[in-house]
Amino acid sequence: MFQTTTAIKKLHALTKRKKVIQGGTSAGKTFGILPILIDRCIRNANTETSVVSESVPHLRRGAIKDFLKIMMSTGRYRDNQWNRSTLKYSFTNGSYIEFFSVEQPDKLRGARRTVLYVNEANNVPFEAYNQLAIRTSGDIWIDFNPTANFWAHKEVANQSDADFITLTYLDNEALPDTIVQEIEVAKEKAKTSEYWSNWWKVYGLGQIGSLEGVCIKEWQEIELPTESRLLCYGMDFGYSNDPTTLIGLYKYNDAYIFDEVIYKTKLLNIDISELLKANDITEIIYADSAEPKSIAELKTYKHKVMPCTKGKDSIVFGINLINQNKIYITSRSKNLIKELQSYTWMKDREGNTINKPIDDFNHCIDAARYAISSQLQTPNKGKYFIR
User: Fold this and answer.
1) What is the Cα gyration radius of the chain?
2) Mean pLDDT of residues grouped by 10 in the chain (387 residues)?
3) What is the model's pLDDT at position 211?
4) How far is CA 122 from CA 6, 126, 130, 207, 369, in A?
5) How far apart are CA 87 and CA 161, in angstroms?
6) Calpha distance 371→325 (Å, rounded)
7) What phi and psi values does residue 147 have, to the nearest 5 degrees?
8) What is the dihedral of CA 318, 320, 324, 325, to 10 degrees?
9) So what's the pLDDT on residue 379?
10) Domain spanning 6-188: which superfamily?
11) Is residue 329 a contact partner of residue 221, using CB atoms and an 8 Å limit?
12) Which of 19, 303, 330, 387 has its CA 20 to 30 A from that of 153?
């Protein structure tokens, strides 16, 4: 039997439909959530539970390993009920727990379920979560290490039907003393370097830190100087879930400044036009070239809108342009700042960073890319020059 830890007590006390669990290392998040899901399946017939994470290898190393350990140690495991191919455990009362990854699109948009558990959610794109959530009739559990602000904070934790708690290793009294001592070594190391300070903040205290593998690292907040010179704007179109964004690009001495002007969902082109007029936007706007109809319609409203230039690796090219220049972000650009803190490079199945960003939480950044790419071009020799 498992020791009833503070973490388990806190998890059992959550009553709202969505349960967002932020926690440091060894806080007992997975080991606390899985027994609750197992008990629900046993007590309630035909409970369909999905445990989802970034990849199947990640699930095998974590949630599946913990699930099997819990089932075996409590005497509930029956080998003929565990399907190793489909990663699905079927109970005798018609309930089941299945494990799959966001790399399986047929699963994301497939059958409905009763309960959803998104494990290590900071590695799961918001669109994947959203597809799963709209097909879930009951409780939704979300856990993660708080390496940075991301969609769980912005889109879920602040909703009226969501509980939010933070767990740390101190909530897990079942931890061996050796592991506790190993974690607390970082407390002293935190005084010696930025790396260890961030590590202790995230994994020791369970507080939001700076993200590993972030695409755009070097930038500073600033109030827009009166002597800065407006160059152009970048625009990314959205509608229902995705916002339409407008980012201004300014030149300031040897640096560039990004300024967030529009960030809003459910805008028709006529609405965008009215906002452009309200904000006195008369300079040229470089907009997403994938939306030629919207660009053409905005032109009929007498706005100077041009399609941005896209090509092979244009996303990485735009990120590199930003990284190769001194960048400031205006203090009022709250959504752009959140995106910069959360926009990360993808990882392969072995956890190695690859040269491709995760396509999520990037609507302001896309608009910023369109703007700066219009001003910095690459001649044949690959050198950058400023218009």
Assistant:
1) 24
2) 85 97 95 96 98 93 96 96 97 98 86 96 86 96 88 90 97 94 92 80 89 78 92 94 94 96 95 97 96 96 93 85 92 86 78 79 93 74 35
3) 59
4) 24, 9, 14, 14, 24
5) 30
6) 14
7) -65, -25
8) 20
9) 40
10) P-loop containing nucleotide triphosphate hydrolases (3.40.50.300)
11) yes
12) 330
User: What is the token pair recorded at 107?
Assistant: 């699963």
SS3 annotation, the chain: CCCCCHHHHHHHCCCCCEEEEEECCCCCHHHHHHHHHHHHHHHCCCCEEEEEECCHHHHHHCHHHHHHHHHHHCCCCCHHHEECCCCEEECCCCCEEEEEECCCHHHHCCCCECEEEECCHHHCCHHHHHHHHCCECCCEEEEECCCCCCHHHHHHHCCCCEEEEEECHHHCCCCCHHHHHHHHHHHHHCCCCHHHHHHHHHHHCCCCCCCCCECCCCCEEECCCCCCEEEEEEEECCCCCCCEEEEEEEEECCEEEEEEEEEECCCCHHHHHHHHHHCCCCCCEEECCCCHHHHHHHHHCCCCEEECCCCCCHHHHHHHHHHCCEEEEECCCHHHHHHHHHCEEEECCCCCEEEEECCCCCHHHHHHHHHHHHHEECCCCCCCEEC
- Answer whether 367's CB lies under 8 Å from 234's CB: yes
Task: Return all residues near 53 (Cβ < 8 A) that are at least 6 apart.
Answer: 59, 62, 63, 101, 102, 118, 119, 120, 123, 124
- Cα distance from N-terminal residue to C-terminal residue, the chain: 69
Q: What is the pLDDT of residue 382?
A: 36
46: left (phi over 0), alpha (psi -120 to 50) or beta: left
Where exactly does CATH 3.30.420.280 map onto the chain?
220-386
CATH code of 220-386, in short, is 3.30.420.280
pLDDT at 300: 97
> Could you tell me if 346 and 123 are in contact, meaning their C-beta atoms sit under 8 angstroms apart?
no
The pTM for the full model equals 0.61
pLDDT at site 351: 67
Where in the sequence of the chain do the CATH 3.40.50.300 domains occur? 6-188
Strand-strand pairing, 326-330 and 255-264? parallel
Which residues have CB under 8 Å from 322's CB, separation 6+? 216, 368, 369, 372
